[in-house]
Write a structure and sequence with these properties.
By secondary structure, the chain is mainly β. 0% of the residues lie in helices and 51% in strands.
């Protein structure tokens, strides 16, 4: 199993809930979207307007090193539509930590 890259407070802003295993895009850097896999603690899904603590495992983090910090808020997107937010509270992957 691949280890998660970050822990975050994840908020859903779309009509249908986010379920464990959801794989949306994340605006990691300005003009750079990457896919990430969500896993939530203690809940199966996050309904519209609600938040939960969980982890995100990004695809190819080596392509965007040193761009995240604790407290950073990133858009969760489906194409150009913003469907949620993730506020980073812990970074597990040191490659992603901003120096």
């Amino acid at each position: 199993m691949i280890e998660p890259d970050i822990e975050a407070i994840i908020t859903c802003k779309r009509k249908t809930p986010f379920y464990n295993g959801y794989r949306p895009e994340h605006l990691i850097k300005e003009y750079y979207l990457t896919t990430g896999i969500h896993q939530y603690y203690g809940v199966e899904c996050i309904p519209n307007g609600e938040s939960a603590l969980g982890t995100i495992t990004f695809v190819t983090p080596e392509a965007y090193p040193h761009c995240l910090w604790e407290g950073k808020s990133i858009n969760i997107q489906e194409g150009s539509n913003i469907v949620g937010r993730a506020v980073i509270i812990r970074i597990f992957n040191n490659l992603l930590k901003k120096e």
